[in-house]
Amino acid sequence: MAKRKDARVTVILECTSCIRNGVKKGSTGISRYITQKNRHNTPNRLELRKFCPYCFKHTIHGEIKK
């Protein structure tokens, strides 16, 4: 039997605010979340509003390449 391509893929979401403004000197990194998306339903890049512990507020987290 032939294997078919999986519709669900794992994606990494990264804070867009930290990248633009630069991370504060006291923080140790950039906020990242791991989630899954359905490739057939959302073919474009995923953007979700999540909490960033380095910015101390809810910001837009965009999908990045692995």
TrEMBL record:
Pfam family, one: Ribosomal_L33
InterPro entries: Ribosomal_bL33, Ribosomal_bL33_CS, Ribosomal_bL33_sf, Ribosomal_zn-bd
Protein family: Belongs to the bacterial ribosomal protein bL33 family.
One Gene Ontology cellular component annotation held by this UniProt entry: ribonucleoprotein complex
Record bears the keyword Glycoprotein: no
Gene Ontology biological process terms in this record: translation
Protein name per Swiss-Prot or TrEMBL: Large ribosomal subunit protein bL33c
Keywords for the protein's UniProt record, in alphabetical order: Plastid, Ribonucleoprotein, Ribosomal protein
GO molecular function, one term: structural constituent of ribosome
Entries under HAMAP family matching the protein: Ribosomal_bL33 (MF_00294)
